[in-house]
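Reviewers of the previous submission asked for a worked example of the structure-prediction workflow described in the proposal, so we include one complete record here. The input consisted solely of the amino acid sequence. No template or homolog information was supplied to the procedure at any stage.
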Amino acid sequence: MLRAVAATGSFSAAGRELGCTQPAVSQQMKALEASVGTPLLIRNGREMRLTQAGEALVRHAAGILAGLTAAEEEVAAIAGLRAGRVRLVSFPSGSSTLVPTALAALRAAHPGTRVSLEEAEPPKSVELLREGDYDVALAFRYEGAAQEGEWDDLVVRPLLTDRLVALVPERHRLARTAPSGSIAIGELAAEPWIAGCPRCRGQLIEVCESAGFTPRIDFATDDYPAVVGLVGAGLGVAVLPQLAVESVRPRGARMVRLEPAVRREIVALTLPDLAQVPAVAVTLEQLARAATR
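From that input alone, the workflow returned the following structure tokens.
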């Protein structure tokens, strides 16, 4: 309105140009002068003239309005999924199985939305989400090991239930003699073990101890292909999530089901406010679809 008054020389002419009444323009100019704390216009006969402060503000008006227009257009693009960014953190076996399918579908449907990916295991990944470093975290927790209220402050999108399986060398006695394809973990009590990520390692020890033995861990690595390679070379046995085994080619190793079953819940997490952001919401949806497939 100030720019229109400066260009037309009167409140009434500015009102006609902007489609509002002369009193409305006058009221807005009084409010603007009150907010800046100094007069911006003085009457000179029938015309309005800018004060020095008014001239300064009008000089900046073009840049202010252009910046506001750009901001509105950018927000509209994000809201309409023509633009936007999602920072995703995932554990490795999720990165190699669920994430590629989800992101390919997301890019095909919304090519303007950019997604970055980093890897971290829970609970570290969940901490990074809460600290604002990421928008979505792909995480897991084992049945029976979940802490009450662990994710109560987050939006939790369940994806799938992943079962732990035993991995033995293909020439191992249990690979040949388990006709049902299932074994009790206690049958591996005397074997050397290869352990996975720290959280999986802790779960392995708990499961073994509940079966009455402590595993002798000869090798420990966060790298699932390395675990499979060590088993395939006959250096020991392992218990891994099935999703992790499916992410690699288990050459020289055989997957055997464990009874009773041990499972982990795989979820996508985000903060409540972020769940309303269109790009985050569609990322959660594509992860859920990838898990269903």
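The chain has a mean pLDDT of 89. We consider this example representative of the routine output the project will generate in years two and three.
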